[in-house]
Amino acid sequence: MLVSERIGQFFLTGEGSRDRLEYTEYGAGDAWVVLVHGQLMPRRMHQPLARALAAEGLHVVTVDLLGHGRSDRPADPLRYSMTAFGEQVIALLDHLGAEQAVVGGTSLGANVSLEVAVLAPERVRGLLVEMPVLDNAVEAGILAFAPLLFAARFMPFTVAGVRAVTRPVPRGLVPFWTGIVLDTLDQRADAMAAVVHGLFFGRVAPSSAQRRGITAPALVVGHPADPIHPAADAAMLAGELPHARFVQARSILEWRLRPERLTRAAVGFAQECWGEQRRASRRERSSTAQ
């Protein structure tokens, strides 16, 4: 089933700043789903899932958070935090006129979704969380991202060199996930350092007590053999959230290379979250037609 796709933008205004954020809409209607990318990755990583959800009648939006993808990339570390990212998603909902949405994402996007649920619980219809980064991932996260921060701060020519090599590659000529990797490598050293610094020295996620207070239904997806996103964190989160179910992926690559099983689970979950409202909408359309 073909669905409409539209690119949009909105602006965040603050003290002496005005930042542009870009997003893509898939489908239409009032059953909103917002998907958030992983750290340093573009929103396009969620294109396959967004299309699958929209084909089932959901109105899906993927967004590039500040410092990512095609959105603005200021070089000030103070502009980046999980809380700030959560506020950006809420600002997106305001811009779209969406009272509620199923909010979800991968890795960074998973943690941002939790922030949204804490900041504005009334706006969250459900949570679709893959690979949350919580207590069990601290050491691996330091090992993974400290070298990136060091390279961007003290050897910016390495980041510029990678960008110079990868940016000219036509994305349409390479496999989809190869293109996502190339887009992720398309970084500017100053902005990349600011993003990593801001997240590195800020809080990773809402506290356990705050997570236990999230009442929205949740689908939590974890997978084994990934130290940065350990399955223990996903299982722990599923145990903390009062209305969560846990799905274990076979590997970190399953949703990338063989997505059918997990996509079915995500579609079913989002439809459940919006089921009552969608049935009411269908009844209203039917009565109008008569």
TrEMBL record:
**Pfam families for this protein:** Abhydrolase_1
**Where does the UniProt annotation place the signal sequence?**
none
Q: Is Hydrolase included in the keywords of this UniProt record?
A: yes
> What are the protein's GO molecular function terms?
hydrolase activity
Q: Which UniProt keywords apply?
A: Hydrolase
Which InterPro entries does the record match to this protein?
Answer: AB_hydrolase_1, AB_hydrolase_fold, AB_hydrolase_sf
Q: What domain of life is recorded for the organism?
A: Bacteria
Boundaries of each AB hydrolase-1 domain copy?
32-137
What is the protein name for this chain? Answer: Alpha/beta fold hydrolase
What is the originating organism of this protein?
Nocardioides nanhaiensis
Organism phylogeny: Bacteria, Bacillati, Actinomycetota, Actinomycetes, Propionibacteriales
